[in-house]
Design a protein that fits this description.
Helix Hairpins, two-stranded antiparallel sheet, Volt_channel_dom_sf, transmembrane, potassium transport
């Protein structure tokens, strides 16, 4: 008696082949599934909206600031073994963070071409300088650019801090000026201390940077040669611009960030009723409802 098709069962070699095809498929799904789960967890930390993700990103910001303070502080002391050990630890942490952000990126090649990525790579190399050679130490000033990239926390800072919302322009102007002063101080120090006896440490470099930026020019410290003059000109031109931006932010009325529904204007007076650009009635929430 011939059974129905649905009652037929594979036997012998056919059954073995069927089982052999089924088993590898189950194995191949396990590892990618775990990898996808790990990638999703990392994405939640770097891009998510959970309290743990916010704490993680604030910790990264604190690490960035701590790294800069470490660079400045250790410039006043000799290159001892414990300093080089801390350099390696910082470099490994930055390397892990860099690899994690690249791993979760959906546009890895585009991210690799971004200047901030090059700054990260330079920072990693410079912190691992005891391994690759102390000549790369100058590149560690590029670590400052990570502080600028930490502006991705802006949305959360606006949501968490009314003070930040009120004085956002002033805070940005201060940060931009402070970063510029830090970078130029590092440039002056790294380029001058081997050849200029007047620049012996970061304090001397900072003193010269500030006097050049404010165009005070006491003349007790100068940068000789064409390179020194070009550095001085760059400090005066860009530094004065950033200084005036800070002054403008302090003098101009405080603005609040609220997108106009019609024209999209982002900044308005705190007590504005209508948009200055298009006249649309605004309903800007007060501090108790933001």
């Amino acid at each position: 008696m011939i059974g129905c098709p649905h009652d037929q069962r594979p036997t012998g070699a056919t059954a073995s082949v069927t089982r052999a095809k089924a088993r590898p498929a189950n194995r191949t799904k396990t590892a990618p599934g775990r990898l996808a789960g790990f990638r999703g967890s990392l994405q939640q930390l770097y891009e998510g909206a959970t309290p743990a993700a916010y704490r993680f990103r604030y910790a990264l910001l604190a690490f960035d600031i701590g790294t800069i303070l470490f660079i400045v502080g250790t410039s006043f002391i000799a290159r001892e073994r414990w300093v080089e050990t801390c350099d390696i630890v910082f470099g490994l942490i930055i390397l892990i963070d860099f690899a994690a952000r690249l791993f979760i990126s959906d546009r890895r090649w585009r991210d690799l071409m971004h200047p901030a990525t090059w700054a990260d790579i330079a920072a990693i190399v410079s912190f691992l300088a005891p391994i690759v050679g102390e000549g790369a130490g100058f590149l560690r000033i590029l670590r400052t650019l990570r502080l600028l990239r930490s502006y991705r926390l802006l949305a959360q800072l606006r949501a968490d801090s009314g003070y930040f919302r009120r004085y956002e322009e002033v805070i940005f102007a201060v940060i931009n000026l402070a970063v510029f002063i830090y970078v130029m101080t590092a440039v002056v120090y790294e380029t001058q201390y081997p050849v200029n006896k007047e620049v012996a440490n970061y304090a001397d470099a900072l003193y010269f940077t500030v006097t050049a930026l404010t165009t005070t020019g006491f003349g007790d410290i100068t940068l000789p040669g064409t390179t020194g003059r070009l550095i001085t000109v760059a400090i005066m031109i860009f530094g004065v611009t950033l200084f005036f931006n800070l002054a403008r932010a302090l003098i101009s009325p405080n603005k609040v960030r609220f997108a106009c529904p019609d024209c999209g204007l982002q900044r308005h007076d705190a007590d504005a009723v209508h948009c200055k650009a298009c006249g649309r009635t605004l309903n800007i929430p007060d501090e108790g409802h933001v």
